[in-house]
Amino acid sequence: MRMKKNYLFTPGPTMVPPEVALAEAQTMIHHRTPQFSQIFYELSEDLKYLFQTKTGEVFTLMSSGTGAMEACVANVLSHGNKALVVVSGKFGERWAELCACFGIEPISICVENGKAVNPADIEAALKKTPGITAVFTTQCETSTGVVHDIKSIASIVKKYGALMVVDSITGIGVHPFMMDEWNIDVAITGSQKGCMMPPGLAFVCVNSSAWAVIEKAGLPRYYWDFRKMRKELKDKTTPFTPAVSLVMAMKTAMDMIKKEGIENVWKRHARLAHATREGAKALGLELFAGEYASNVLTAIKAPKGIDIDKIIKKLRDETGVTFTGGQDELKGMIVRIGHMGYVNDFDVIVAIAALEKGLYDAGYRFELGQGLSTVQSLLVSKK
Ligand SMILES: *Cc1c(COP(=O)(O)O)cnc(C)c1O
């Protein structure tokens, strides 16, 4: 029995820095105190930096990412509204399911797995159906590893007067995301992806155009009511008991992001993703998302005749290195290697070394170290 060490190369939850874990372990404080208000206020201000907004407001929700998605639908739409949804995988599909759950059958633009949406298709849909209230999109489709061109999509949506709502749960803190500059109306992210946090918090950023709609929106909402959150945020607090420990941990995670600088965070992810992709290619593997590959994770096609899910399970159970496979129709077809959040050069080297081991043990043939030497030449020796 070898000692295992956990490396989470998963598309969330991701690895948590010790500083953040320790911040979460601080003595409990009461949430209706100046002490908590100060932390919450500072965090809410820091989050504006994360979303790259000066004028938007950021709410902290006590839920996983999907809670924030549901909150967006409930706060933005009214009965009888029209909504447009971009579906390019499991998470785009979730927007469609959420709309349907509230009685709004959305118009879906379906994109082939592994491809990004063509912004012109969104324009065509907006032209064809006038009066669409909101367009629900995903920056990084975590199920396929694709990144969508949110900036171009937002500029189109703006022209048609619809609200641009973005699930950037794995985008923010990994890829450039500019709330104000790109004219995004509502954006969300979650704690357990690029933010280097345990699961449990989600963040929603809302701009002034969205407010006009939210104030009058007619779908039922109670716990998720942005109007209540906005009112309480003015008093530096939350409408209901917040996840105090997670809020304290998130403040520390934000301090780390601010210290590195958001542009450097984006650059780090681009560099690590590039090295991972090249490492996989050096092993003769094919990337699933090709030219649309995000910097969040690398989705790699399973080589013919190789049981990729068995390799993933074996690596996880025997070495503690965790990758994930494909979901639903992609099951058994891909392996997804996450490289977001608390990840650096040497972590990617571990990931590729583990990938080599898994494939090699399963009988896939290449020269051991073939992927690693590519990764090392890109990362380690580079000045
Ligand atoms: C992780 C994720 C979500 C939300 O999932 P939760 O399990 O509810 O946190 C939504 N969208 C994307 C793109 C994601 O990666």
UniProtKB/TrEMBL annotation:
BP GO annotations: glycine biosynthetic process, by transamination of glyoxylate
UniProt superkingdom: Bacteria
Residue span(s) of domain Aminotransferase class V: 7-327
Cofactor(s), by name: pyridoxal 5'-phosphate
Pfam families in the record: Aminotran_5
N6-(pyridoxal phosphate)lysine PTM positions: 193
Keyword Zinc: no
A molecular function GO annotation: alanine-glyoxylate transaminase activity
Binding-site residues, substrate: 336
Classification via PROSITE patterns: AA_TRANSFER_CLASS_5 (PS00595)
Keywords attached to this entry: Aminotransferase, Pyridoxal phosphate, Transferase
Similarity-based family: Belongs to the class-V pyridoxal-phosphate-dependent aminotransferase family.
Protein name: Aminotransferase
